[in-house]
Amino acid sequence: MERKNTKIQRSALLIKGFMALVMFTLAINTYKTNVIDFGAVAGAIGILAMLRGFLASPSLLSMPLKHWLESNHKISRESYLYFSLAFILIVVSGF
Q: Per 3-state DSSP, what percentage of the chain is helix, strand, and coil (rounded to 5)?
């Protein structure tokens, strides 16, 4: 159990680091071009929502990808909402 908690904490820190990197990259891009690209903003918010969906279900962070959709594992409703928001925003950012 201790090993699982350690995995979850490490993965959560890594995801938070990626979230900070996405925000930093968006800020640098906006600063360099002096233009707010709403497609890029939608994509960045979509990526942040996807990463937040992973953080909302911490048990996802401690198991392999192939076990995520098994019937005995429950993904929280909040994660589903974040994942659907991320999908919509990432699709919108492509236009």
A: 80, 0, 20
